[in-house]
Amino acid sequence: MTRVLRPKEIKTKLGKTQVEHDQSFEAELEIDVHELFTGFDKFKDGSDNIRFEELVEIFLNNARCLNNRVTRLASLIALGLAIVYGVVLYFSHIPRLETPSELTYITNDFTENSYDLPPRLTSQVGLKNQSLHGRGSIELSVVIPCYNETNRLGKMLDEATEYLNKNYKENYEILIVDDGSSDGTDDYALRKATQLKLAPHILRVIKLSSNRGKGGAVTHGLLHSRGRLALFADADGATKFSDVKKLMDWLNQLGNKPGVAIGSRSHMVDTDAVVKRSFIRNFLMYGLHTLVYIFGIRAIQDTQCGFKMFNQESISKVFPHMHTERWIFDVEVLLLCEIQGIAMQEVPVNWQEIDGSKIDLAKDSIGMAIDLVVTRIAYLIGTYKLNECGRLSKKNQ
């Protein structure tokens, strides 16, 4: 037989300590809809000497107990969300504005002159009008982010220019984005351009006034590129440069639709190039891939390969909105593509491990994990928006 709590029982129970109340919470809420109707039936037929006022008091007191618990739960949830929001806000990133010198480049013309870059590409300017600034005037831009790369850049440029001169003659540009190097990477690149007999303005060196990170350097270069298509490639030359044709072939199938061709090493998982890497490096790599999968990038297996190609349509939709400037920026690129429905395709490339990596496995792995979590949540809760990192909002004020 179900039981209705008497008013006296309720008063006794409400007199207990908070701990006792919590422990016996389920017992205190024995009344439910069925019990209420049972009490109501007894009230109607006069059995058990129950009065209507007692029935109402029983219901209200039990409801009050339930309401207190729900209120506490709601408060905890609100506090948790506030903490998450605060943490995301603390770790979120808004890229700094470019300095005047970063909007210029130097080239191997044996002068000390600097030249203006094309204006920064924005998401609000139609690409049909960009030819006024030289966009689309050449076939391919190659953006190479560099930080103290005098020991590795030369070999990469040898391979790249050999392929580009053979297939594109002078219908290309190489943008060396010197990310605050201290080893003379900018001067080395100019000397290398002269050694390779490149005409002035084919190789352009953009010197960032301070280190921004690989993502910041890539973003800066792509937003000021002129090519119909643009590739960013790591300075170490780990990816066989001639594989650029594979990426280009896929992008050309899209016509004027935005798209991203992603160089991928996923087919090399069981090869010596990956198997012979250190245990800790492979462990961290798989850990990162797991996090990336959990946070929504499931169609792409290799997010971190430094060999990706974009058309101008995808550059204008993705890179004006980029927040992340460190190692995990590749994931934000793919997130922005998914959010906007931009076509993506992994393309197998030939790759080999090159010594001299700038990654500090312990420190940077932690930073990458934090950036990944913050970036994903920031887009979910609206901290990051498609407003060019606040630039559009400021223009509309």
From TrEMBL:
Keyword Transferase: yes
Subcellular location: Endoplasmic reticulum membrane
GO MF entries: dolichyl-phosphate beta-glucosyltransferase activity; mRNA 5'-triphosphate monophosphatase activity; polynucleotide 5'-phosphatase activity
Domain of life: Eukaryota
Primary site of residence: endoplasmic reticulum
Membrane topology of this protein: Single-pass membrane protein
Transmembrane segments: 73-91
Residues annotated as domain Glycosyltransferase 2-like: 141-319
This protein's pathway: Protein modification; protein glycosylation
Catalyzed reactions: a di-trans,poly-cis-dolichyl phosphate + UDP-alpha-D-glucose = a di-trans,poly-cis-dolichyl beta-D-glucosyl phosphate + UDP; a 5'-end triphospho-ribonucleoside in mRNA + H2O = a 5'-end diphospho-ribonucleoside in mRNA + phosphate + H(+)
UniProt cross-references to Pfam families, sorted A to Z: Glycos_transf_2 (PF00535)
GO annotation, biological process: mRNA processing; protein N-linked glycosylation
Keyword terms, alphabetized: Endoplasmic reticulum, Glycosyltransferase, Hydrolase, Membrane, mRNA processing, Signal-anchor, Transferase, Transmembrane, Transmembrane helix
Annotated Gene Ontology cellular component terms: endoplasmic reticulum membrane
Family: Belongs to the glycosyltransferase 2 family.
Protein name as catalogued: Glycosyltransferase 2-like domain-containing protein
